[in-house]
Amino acid sequence: MMMVCRGFTTLSSTLGHLVIALHDGLLHAISNESQVPALMNMLKALGTLMMSAAYTRLPSDLLIRCIEVNLCALFLDMSCLMPSQLEGQAASTAAVLIFLVQNDTVC
Description:
It is a single chain. The protein has 4 helices and no strands. The chain is mainly alpha-helical. The chain has one domain. The longest helix is centred in the N-terminal third of the chain and has 22 residues. It is elongated, with a radius of gyration of 17 Å.
């Protein structure tokens, strides 16, 4: 019987790659979405992910890309949003900014 040697990937490494892929998927979907209700839900999901991700252990540009997408969605697309939708988007962006201030990411 022949033994096959396989590489070992730690659970933390696998989970890290999964979190990065989730970020990338959400950022791509948000950038290409034209339907406001779907966009709002994706932004909420991204906000939740941003509040729980350990950005000190993830690629350095990932947090910046998330902030850029959130701010662009808030400031560029406000004209097409209803007031009730703006509240949800503002809450998502506020959550991101609170996270950044609490973690000394911004001045």
